[in-house]
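Hey, I was hoping to borrow your eyes for a little while. A protein chain has come my way and I'm curious about its shape. Take your time with it, there's no hurry, and the full record follows here:
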Amino acid sequence: MAEPLGVEEVRRALAEDRAADDVTTRLLGATARRLACAHFVAEGRFVVAGLPVVAQVYAELDRDARVEQACPEGEWTAPGAVLAQVRAAAGSLLAGERVALNFLQRLSGVATLTRRAAEAVAGTGARITHTRKTTPGLRALERYAVTVGGGVENRGSLAAAILWKDNHWALLGRGELAAALATAPGGVPVVVEVEDDAQLEQALAAGVRHILADNQTPQRVAAWVRRAGPGVTVQASGGITPETARAYAEAGALLISIGALTHSAPAVPIRCEIALPR
C-alpha cells in the first residue's frame, strides 16, 4: 500500500524543526493539552495545493487530530477564505504550524505559477511541464503541485528517461549520436536537446521522436516543428515564462518546460489562526 502524500518529507521537516521539543509551547502548561482549533486562511488570490500534506503534518503529531479541508485542491481562492480547519491539542497545533504553512505556501505558489502558464497556452494543444530544477528533497511534492496547477509531469530523475543534452554532445562528439542511442535500454523514453540545425538533423536521422529545443526563439521552434514533421514532439525550454509561453505554443511546441515553476515560484500568503473553543 502506498504511503500518504508527503509522509517522508513531512517527517524530515518535523525532525528538522524539532517539533517534539517545542520549548515555547511547554510554557503553556496544561493549556497545551486542551483541544483547540486552527484555521489556515488565505491572504491573497492563488491556486491551492498541499492540503493533503497539511493533514499529514498533523497526523504525525497527533493521532487524534481532525483535519477538515474547506477549499478544493487546485481551486483559485481569495483573500479571507478558510483553506482548512484542524482540531487537535493546542500544543500539537503550535508544533506543526510552521511546517504546515511552509508546505502549503510553497506548493500553492508552484501550483499558481503553473496555472498561469497553463491558462496562457489554453486552446493550443500545448502542455506545460516542469524541469529537474526542484528544491532538494521536495521534488515529488513540487511535481505534484505542478499537476494540481494544470501542468503535466516530466522526467522525474536521471533514470526515468534519456535526455541527451549539450554536455553529452560535447563529450561524445557530433557524429556519434546514432551509435550512442543504439545502446539505449529498451522501453526508456529518449529526448534529444538540439541547439542548431546540424544537431536537429542528426537527431532526426537517428530516429529520435522527441526533440528539446533549448533557448530558441519561437520563430526557430516553428521552423524546427515544420522540419521534424508529424509524429515528432518538439518541446521548448529555456527561459520561458507564463508571459512568453503562448508564443511557443503557437509555434507548434507540444510541450513547454519552465524551470521557474519550481525554482522561482513565490510562496503565497497564508496565515494560521489558533484559538481555544468558546
Summary: DSSP finds ten helices and twelve strands in the chain.
